[in-house]
Amino acid sequence: MADIAPSDSEKLVRFALFQERTNPGGIGNECTHFVYAGLLEIRALDGMVRKDPQVATDNNAAALRWGRKVDAAEAIPGDVVQYRDQKASIVVYSSLVGSGNLYAASRMRGPQHTAITYTRPYQGDLIEFECHLSNDGPDQASYTKMQVRENRVFVESYAIEIGEAALNQPSSLMTYIRNTGGTPEALFRAVNWGALRQNFTPSAARLAEIRRSIKAGQTPAGVGIFFEVVVTGSTTFYRPQISNERRTMAPAALQAEKAKVVDRMKKTGRKGSAATGDSKTDRIAAGSFNWEFRDQ
Question: pTM value?
Answer without folding.
Answer: 0.90
